[in-house]
Amino acid sequence: MASGDGGSGEEPALVAAECEGAADLWVDVGVLVAHEPADPDRLRSFASRAAADAVDELASATDVGWRFFLESPRRLPDSERRRPSEFLDSATHEMVEGPYDMVLVVTDVALVSSRQRFVPGLASPLARVAVLSTRNLRRAPRGEPTRSFGDGAVRWNGATLLVHLLGHVLGARHRDADGGVMEPFEFVPDRQSVPPMDADVAAYLRRIAGEIPAEEGRPRGPVGRLAFHVRSAARNPGRVLRALVNSRAPLLPLSLPKLSTAALTPTLVIVFSAESWDVGFNIDNATVALFAVASVLVAAGYLFFAQNLSFPRKRHRLVTEHTALVNVTVLLVLVLAMGGLFTLVWGVMLVIELVVFPPNLMSNWPSLEDPAVGFLDLVRTGAFISTIGVLSGALAGGLESRTIVSHLTLFLDRP
Prior knowledge:
alpha/beta; Collagenase (Catalytic Domain); 2 domains; seven-stranded mixed beta sheet; elongated; transmembrane helix; MetalloPept_cat_dom_sf; membrane; transmembrane
C-alpha cells in the first residue's frame, strides 16, 4: 500500500518496518514532518528514530506488520501555536497519495486542544491521523536549557507518545495507572524504553487488526464519489456515530459567535413585525416543520460546500475510506450544529414571545383573523422565524475558521 499514485516530489523513505503474525497484512503509516522556518533535518531524524523505537511494540501488540514511510517535509510559515486540525488537510492528502492506512504528523510548534490547553499530541480515530509535537518533549524545568533532540528522555518519551497516539487512532482507550503505554501520557525524565501494551488493549488491537487496511476506490464523477461516501458510512456506522457523540455538535454554535450573532440579529427585528405573526398564525404545523428541516439541511450543505470543508482539498482519483468517513462526519456535524442553532434561536424567540411581549398585543393587531393567541401559535410562529435565522446565519455569518469544525469534531481533547 505504500506505492504512490500521482504524487509529487521525492519518494517516501522506509524508516522502520517490523513483521509479526500474518506476513501478508501490513499497516502502512505515512510520517509527515511539519517544521518551523528552520532546518528540518533534526526533526526528520527524531521522527525516523521514534518510528524505529516504536515499531516493535506496535507489531507485537497488533500481531501484524508495520511500516513507516517518511514523506517530504512541510515548512510552516511561522512558529505560532496550532490546532491539530490545521494539519488535517496535508495529512489526508498524504494518506490518499501514499496511500496510507494512517498518517503521523510530527511538528516542532506548540499544539493546543479544543479546551485551549497545550498538549504534546492528539489523535483522530476517525481520520486515522495523529499529531505529535516536540515542543512539550523538549521543554525543560525552569532555569535549565531546552532539551536537545538527541536527549535520551526526548527520544524515549517521543517513542512512547507515538505508540500512545497510534493506540488512540486504533480505538484504544486510556488505562489509568496500569504502567502500560496507554495510561494518560506524562513526560518521564528517566524513561529508557517504550512501555508495553496492556494485555487487554493488545487483545483488542489484535481483534481489529484485519480491519486496519482501508478500502480504496476510484469513483468517477460526483455521483460515483457520493456513492463511495455513502457506502463507506454504511460500512462503519459505529465509527461515525461515536464521532458525532464525542463532537457535541448541537453545542457547536456556542463556539461560533459570528454564526450565532448573524442568526439572531435579523430574528430580533422580525419577531416584532406584524407580517411575521400573520404568517406564523396562518401557516400549518406540517409546513413549518418541513420548512425548519429544509433550512437546517440547506444551511449545513451551504457551509460544507461554500467553505470547502471536504478532505482532502485537492481532488484525487483515489479516495480512501478514512477520508470518506471524515467528510460524511463533518457534514453530519454541520447538520446537527444547524439543528442546535435552530433550537437556540427558537428558544430566544419563545422567551421574547412569552416574557417581553404584552399579553394582549397580538390580539389587537388587525391583520390577525382570530384574536385568540394560544401557546401553540407562539411555538409555531417562533419556529417559523427561527428558520429564517438559521438561513441568514449560514449565509451571512458562516464559520470563523474552517478548521474549527474538524478540530472540535475529529480530534480527542487530550493525549
